[in-house]
Design goal:
The protein is of the alpha+beta class and about 220 residues long. The protein has a domain at about 85-180: Alpha-Beta Plaits (2-Layer Sandwich). It has helices at about 1-25, 45-55, 85-90, 110-125, 150-160, 180-200, 205-215; strands at about 100-105, 130-135, 140-145, 165-170, 170-175. Strands 2-3-1-4-5 form a 5-stranded antiparallel beta sheet.
């Protein structure tokens, strides 16, 4: 029995020695920026905090990285048709953000512009084209594409909308199908075609009839 008491006393003594030492160990010193009130954090402090949280995390996939950190897609210029502007945009803007300005007819109010562009956005989403929408004026809005390659398919969809006047991206402007200027150009082109048809060259049969008339005279 006395032997058990001695063993118990020994373990108790060890605990009494270890516990104070554990409590006296100094905690890891925090950097000065971490001691600030979070309301006083600068942008740089927030970035440091985020970096600390992300330490030890698995590396992100390229498409999960912020846009400015994503690797640029490899483009084989030898296989790229530089004369086709749409293909160039698809190749060079894939995976990169791209901004498109859209204009609506002046007859629409700001509320109507909001409603119309929302309908367009839904139509784009239904075609798996993801774009954020921002109204910047009564008759103007911006569509932001996370994947710039999708802007070409969006262009084809938007130009068919009767409320649209024009779209602009990458320094290029395209008139909508129902834009008055575009419709005037098409009408003028059709008139020229009709005029050419009226002033058609005489056929062989017409020439023979003319020659016969001359002989009769």
């Amino acid at each position: 029995m006395s032997k058990m008491k001695n063993i118990f006393k020994f373990f108790l003594l060890v605990l009494l020695i270890c516990i104070p030492n554990a409590n006296c160990s100094k905690p890891e010193e925090k950097p000065s920026w971490a001691k600030k009130d979070i309301r006083d954090y600068t942008d740089a402090d927030m970035e440091r905090l985020l970096d600390q949280w992300e330490e030890g995390d698995d590396p992100l996939e390229p498409d999960e990285l912020p846009e400015h950190l994503r690797p640029s897609p490899k483009i084989d210029l030898a296989k790229l048709d530089m004369t086709n502007a749409d293909n160039v945009i698809r190749a060079t803007k894939k995976g990169k953000g791209l901004m498109m300005f859209v204009g609506l007819k002046k007859e629409y109010s700001r509320d109507e512009t909001e409603s119309i562009t929302q309908r367009w956005q839904t139509g784009l989403h239904n075609n798996h084209i993801i774009a954020e929408r921002y109204i910047i004026d009564d008759n103007r809005a911006i569509f932001m594409f996370r994947d710039g390659a999708q802007v070409i398919d969006a262009k084809g969809f938007l130009l068919e909308q009767p409320e649209l006047t024009e779209i602009t991206f990458e320094g290029q402007t395209f008139n909508g199908k129902y834009n008055k200027e575009n419709m005037a150009e098409e009408t003028a082109g059709e008139s020229k075609v009709k005029t050419k048809k009226k002033i058609s060259k005489p056929t062989t049969e017409t020439k023979r009839e003319t020659a016969n008339n001359k002989d009769e005279l």
